[in-house]
Amino acid sequence: MPALTTTTDGFLLHGAPFRIISGAMHYFRIHPDQWADRLRKARLMGLNTAETYVPWNLHQPEPDGPLVLDGLLDLPRYLRLAQEEGLQVLLRPGPYICAEWDGGGLPSWLTSDPGIKLRSSDPRFTAAIDRFLDLLLPPLLPHMAASGGPVIAVQVENEYGAYGDDTAYLRHLADGFRDRGVEELLFTCDQANAEHLAAGGLPGVLATATFGSRVTDSLDRLRAHQPQGPLMCAEFWIGWFDHWGEPHHGRDAADAAADLERILAAGASVNIYMFHGGTNFGFTNGANHDHAYAPIVTSYDYDAPLTEWGDPGPKYHAFREVIARHAPVPEEPAPTPGPKLPYTEVELTSRTPLLAHLDELAERVHAEQPPTMEELGMRSGYVLYRTALPAAGDGLLHFEGGVGDRAQVFVDGAPVGVLERERHEESLPVRALRAGAVLDVLVENMGGVNYGPRIGASKGLLGTVRFDGTPLVGWDCHLLALNDVGQVPDAGTEVPGSASGQVPDTAPASSPDAHGPVFYRGEFTVDAPADTFLALPGWTKGQAWVNGFHLGRYWNRGPQRTLYIPAPVLRTGRNELVLLELHGTTSARAALTATPDLGYEKAH
Ligand code: GLA
């Protein structure tokens, strides 16, 4: 008997009436040293439950396992902390999770096989799922309510009705949980319309709905689909995510609070998506691809009640007041903003040009035709593809099928242009000053599509590359996973003008040092670690690491202008900042500032 059961219009937990007032918070988007703090703040807002997805792609990076379950991925520890805080847990193990997460959580070793029909009862897909569940569920079973743990319900798939209608696949998943010992309540979630609810539902499994507004209509549609049982909004969207190059999203706190009031006044249960969004650290962000490819930014702040950096925002207080009208809220005072590091400038004192140090940084694979990143076994990061141009003169470089997702092109080390999947760019005029000129194409995987039919779309060079119609063959592919920036050789080259903070553009335009990708390194001192934000005025686009911790991507395209540095990444005394700047900088300095900038000036 599951701990959580349903009645004609509500839930019982261990036999007593229970309303789920939950908030989404993804452990994999929060530094593990901050999990306890975030969970405590969830309880203090009045939540009785915390919800999380489980990212298959990170937990099982290789098809044959093993399961990765440490550090940021130590889900059992997260569940223990939730329980210590007195919170119940809703677990959403996917295996598809959407979530603006790389590939929607489906591992690239799986999505790269074009023979596999994803999210279906294709036996090759379900066999992969079965292997994952075999690995994942044994360490989680002790944390299920049946064993005295906090997990009271488990979601089957995710908004499946928006994607397919293969009920046998949903049944396989539900049976897969049961066969491996999960006794807890199962549920599906779908966007609140009749078609999605019908296609994504499973007889005998509780249906829930996802929506952000039009509360009454949405709950009515859920009720029409499921005449009896608890009403639950499994994702109440109180904010939204951002794409690079688009305005920052915000939602008025009073407006969101009014809708929360409507949900609770209707007697429904709720999971606030997100309570605390966190960060897409490293290469973990996803992308949308509707009319065009649109990668998600590094911050997943989501305009949530608890900000990306763990401070209560306007919604925190507004929601706490709403919840207090319907359920007991702890009497302890609401949390206040945490300390921030004092403003600190970081001088980037050494520079290591990428193209000059490829062999130290990258494994090299030779191929006649350019392989995709998946064919090269690259889950994320960059590949530098190198070949020679056959003839001197002007010509058109054409990339059949385009690039995945952004390519910087160099001839004999000189930058000649950029191609972006976002802009459907496939061709570029180039001039080779000699036959045999070196063509370098540095391709960045900007994040795997996480929603819709394009999940698993390839990265890297996607087809034949031609120079004035002649196919280019014989490629050296340099695999830049960038898992360990400690490997970046310290070329010891002083940054010109670092004392003045300006890099004079003294190198000739044809030198790769002038505008090409360069690793920069600098040190700074911290008296007492505290949260801070990395600001990079004058820098263009790249990656940032602090003490080896990969903060993620930066890009002056915005809207996000600063990267969150969690306090636990810093140490008292000497700290190190490493940047991979892909284009160029007008400054040799970065700043650690107490003021985040997610693009508020454009908020609507
Ligand atoms: C849907 C998905 C979530 C997330 C939100 C948008 O509801 O289920 O994973 O992608 O959209 O943030």
TrEMBL record:
Its EC number is 3.2.1.23. It comes from the Bacteria. It is an enzyme of class 3 (hydrolase). Residues 491-514 are annotated as: Disordered. Residues 370-479 form the Beta-galactosidase 1-like first all-beta domain. Residues 11-324 form the Glycoside hydrolase 35 catalytic domain. Residues 517-575 form the Beta-galactosidase galactose-binding domain. PANTHER family: BETA-GALACTOSIDASE RELATED. Belongs to the glycosyl hydrolase 35 family. This is Beta-galactosidase. It comes from Streptomyces polyasparticus.
